[in-house]
């Protein structure tokens, strides 16, 4: 199976190289929003996708006012859960079609952005259910204009090819992956992340760090994805503690948004690994927030890989200026691992998730490996027993 998996990974790399993945047009600040709105040339309305909490907190107020100032018609859809469900997507499609919308603005975290992507996908693939969009290249059709405005610095969904959805009936969480799911535009507005609580800032920041690290240590990285990973990791190490402790520091907030965007560009091309494969199972079964699950799993998975990834970890440490020239590869790798552990402590990330039931561990591990194999180009392969050991460790 190992040979088959590696051949599959090589094929994925060739697809990325020869077909290429689009990048969204990038804007920053409310001036960037005004600039994007000026490109809207139709009288048909926009669907604004967000969630009820952001609406209640007033996060959408300035964005909606900007739409009114430009005399652009809009309809609001906020029925999006923290782990968006198939039903959330289908209800959004109904609103989009009923109001004859011509595009979408998504304002929110990764859940909102993913839900908006799937609404857009369903609008152009009306005969396919959300379940039928699961997996690789099931859309293959240009989406309507989709402007993604993240309110958390973590998922990078504003620049990725994937959209994750939860199926409550089967207690599974899966992704639709297609180059057409990359939003046409992304706007990074640091002010929108000011109201994010510190514990969410921490978890989403480590989510972005996980994207960057998993894409860098994986087997199909390209020069572009490697560079974006390194840029993201350095920005996160240098800015996440400040954003966590001082949520009103707009420089740190903007740098974290940029880091999340870079990490999204990286893992869109180089994919992720076992941290994500296991975390998705926690989200599907227990509703565990994705960023939190990644944060708890990151160190156990990196330690599982061991010396296999030392050279890559040393390169990251060198790039982040954490090392000295005379240090060995192993020393440099351990410096980075220690730096990450210290960062997790500063952010008060827990080491365990109490919701995990020991009776579920075997099934969780089986589902995680099924997700990872063969799609994730992990640096070393994990078996059922090893995966169960990691889940057991974070459940204690």
| Unreliable residue stretches | none
Q: How do the helices and strands follow one another from N- to C-terminus?
A: HEHEHHEHEHEEEEEHHHHHHHHH
Mean pLDDT: 94
Give the fraction of residues assigned to helices: 40-55%
Terminal CA distance: 32 Å
Number of strands: 9
Cα shape: globular
Percent of sequence in beta strands: 5-15%
The helix/strand class is: alpha/beta
Give the count of helical stretches: 15
Largest sheet: 6 strands, parallel
- Write down the Rg: 20 Å
The main sheet orders its strands as 1-9-6-4-2-3
Short description:
With 396 residues, this protein is an alpha/beta fold.
List its traits.
single chain; 9 strands; 396 residues; alpha/beta; six-stranded parallel beta sheet
What does this protein look like?
The chain is an alpha/beta fold and 396 residues long. It is 54% helix and 10% strand. It is built from 15 helices and nine strands. The protein has helices spanning 2-19, 29-37, 52-57, 61-69, 86-98, 110-124, 198-217, 223-245, 250-270, 274-286, 290-305, 310-319, 329-346, 361-372, 384-395, and strands at residues 25-28, 46-49, 74-77, 103-108, 135-136, 146-150, 162-167, 172-177, 185-188. The strands form two sheets. A six-stranded parallel beta sheet has the order 1-9-6-4-2-3, sandwiched between helices. Strands 5-8-7 form a three-stranded mixed beta sheet. Strand 7 (162-167) and strand 8 (172-177) form a beta hairpin. The longest helix has 23 residues, at 223-245. The chain is globular, with a radius of gyration of 20 Å. The two termini are 32 Å apart. The model has no long low-confidence stretch (mean pLDDT 94).
